[in-house]
Design brief:
Layout lengths: L1 H22 L6 H15 L31 H4 L4 H7 L3 E10 L12 H4 L6 E13 L3 E4 L1 H4 L4 E5 L5 E3 L1 E6 L4 E5 L22 E6 L7 E12 L10 E4 L11 E3 L5 E8 L10 E5 H12 L12 E5 L2 H7 L7 E6 L4 H5 L6 E5 L2 E2 L3 H9 L6 E8 L2 E8 L12 E2 L9 E5 L2 H6 L9 E6 L4 H4 L7 E5 L2 E2 L3 H8 L5 E8 L2 E8 L1
Length: 507
């Protein structure tokens, strides 16, 4: 019976196709095409196909349940659909970002005892430029881009898709999440792309990437969501990316990743490449992080403030998972809890493993940091915790990081290796701002003046200064007083990312 049914279906399909070719109208006319399509569905076996007996018509996922309709294209008409209407609606909100900075150039003869007298004078500064993209997310002129596009820039210009150019002001930037918000003043409301929900994305969803690759002009490429929640990319401290095979190239940074509803689901940020061009592995910052960042910029914050819970986390390795009796090495292991902090008050303890937050699975500490960063300060989140083999839920308050006893920032002057460094005593709030562990202590470099001795000698933001010329540095005032000493020999100890560095130099 199966063989007879299959043979009959094959003959019927051949007859229908032949009729369509002869008349020349069946497949060209929409109504005729739909009629043929329905007949084919019926002949192939709509609803009663059994495994191994033939191919059933594609089914619509989530139909009738309020979910987004997802299915593969059926028929030539659907294969010939175009992204053009979607591009026309969203492309005007994608802009080009031009950043420039002046870099001091030192004469190669500066230190030469003879030629330095003639050619050792200071050379004129060189202008260094970078090119990227951005997305207008508010009609008042608020634009989101990547921090690495405008990092160190003295001037940032924005070019709209209609050719107009504007000077922009940097409202907020954060190198830890690699995002920046710009503001331009336009005489009329600007086109925007609405922010979508990146958590609603699924692997396989169609997406479009828009930007200005290699400066050739606005370009749109298509692809799918290749993976979600990519961590350990090494691009930012809050690595939690959408991976896509839509072509992303240099110049696309800060551009839009949009879904089929025309909503912004990501900011294109990085690619994996051995040649510098796209090989189909691109990464975008999820729109839920972008939304939190933009809200922080609109509130007038001077940095992207994240909720504070007073706990530090580390990865769950296979050895740790085996010791705790876990099947898979996933989750975030609590390594320390600050006394009287929100986590301690909620009952979270070192050795606990956070497996989910607000019902969303947590695979590693990066995922937990991302989830925390997208939540508003003042709220409460529910942690699913594994403690000594038992599961329990703990509600943790999301508070603002405490300021500490002394938050005064001092810029070191005079003539010392620390001249031009802005320093302050660490507090949980300052540590969070610098992307450091919130339980870190000491005197930290908050910022460095451009072309200052401190910058030239290689000091970095986040360096903790422990000792200078035998004096233990306990406060910013201690370092300021020590830097005023008249000496040419300097010995100091700093802590950089947990590594102790000792240095002796003449200055």
């Amino acid at each position: 019976m199966r063989i007879v049914r299959s043979s009959f279906a094959a003959v019927a399909i051949a007859v229908l196709v032949g009729v369509g070719i002869v008349t020349g109208t069946a497949l060209a006319d929409d109504s005729a095409g739909s009629t043929v399509q329905e007949m084919l569905k019926g002949l192939i076996g709509k609803g009663d196909a059994k495994p191994g007996t033939g191919a059933a018509a594609p089914s619509a996922e989530g139909q009738g349940s309020g979910q987004t309709l997802r299915r593969v294209p059926f028929g030539r008409d659907e294969m010939e659909l175009s992204f053009a209407p979607l591009v026309k609606r969203t492309a005007p909100a994608v802009v080009n970002v031009y950043a420039s900075s002046k870099v001091r150039v030192q004469s190669p003869f500066m230190d030469d005892p003879f030629f330095g007298r003639f050619f050792g004078q200071q050379m004129p500064p060189r202008v260094q430029s970078s090119l990227g993209s951005g997305v207008i997310v508010d009609p008042s002129g608020i634009i989101v881009t990547n921090n690495h596009v405008i990092k160190g820039a003295d001037e940032v210009k924005v070019a709209l898709s209609d050719g107009r150019e504007f000077e922009s002001r940097i409202v907020l930037k954060d190198d830890k999440v690699d995002l920046a918000v710009l503001k331009i003043k336009a005489p009329d409301p600007l086109p925007t792309i609405p922010l979508g929900d990146s958590d609603a994305l699924e692997v396989g969803d169609l997406v479009l990437a828009m930007g200005n690759p290699f400066g050739v002009g606005q370009t749109t490429t298509s692809g799918i969501v290749s993976a979600l929640a990519r961590t350990h990319i090494g691009v930012s401290d809050y690595s939690f990316f959408i991976q896509t095979d839509a072509a992303i190239n240099p110049g696309n940074s800060g551009g839009a990743l949009i879904d089929m509803k025309g909503e912004l689901v990501g900011i294109n940020s990085a690619i994996y490449s051995r040649s510098g061009g796209s090989i189909g592995i691109g990464f975008a910052i999820p729109s839920n992080m972008v939304r939190a960042f933009v809200q922080s910029a609109k509130s007038g914050a001077d940095y992207f403030e994240r909720p504070y819970i007073g706990a530090e986390f580390q990865e769950v390795t296979q050895q740790v998972a085996d010791a705790l009796g876990m099947g898979n090495p996933s989750g975030a292991l609590v390594s320390s809890v600050t006394k009287d902090g929100p986590a301690a008050q909620a009952g979270l303890k070192p050795g606990d493993v956070v497996t989910a937050m607000d019902g969303v699975k947590i695979d590693d500490p990066q995922a937990l940091n991302f989830r925390l960063s997208t939540q508003p300060i003042g709220g409460t989140s529910t942690f699913d915790v594994l403690r000594q083999g038992e599961k329990q839920q703990i509600k943790v308050k999301l508070e603002r990081a405490p300021e500490g006893q002394s938050s005064k920032e001092i810029t070191i002057g005079g003539q010392s290796p620390f001249t031009g460094a802005k320093v302050a005593a660490l507090s949980p709030r300052l540590a969070q701002r610098l992307g450091m562990s919130t339980d870190a202590t000491g005197v930290v470099i908050v910022d460095l003046a451009g072309n200052s001795p401190a910058e030239s000698l290689g000091f970095q933001k986040g360096d903790i200064i422990r000792e200078v010329n035998g004096t233990t540095i306990k406060s910013a005032e201690d370092l300021d007083k020590t830097a005023e000493r008249k000496t040419r020999l300097w010995r100091f100890t700093i802590d950089r990312g947990g590594q102790t560095i000792r240095q002796i130099l003449q200055f």
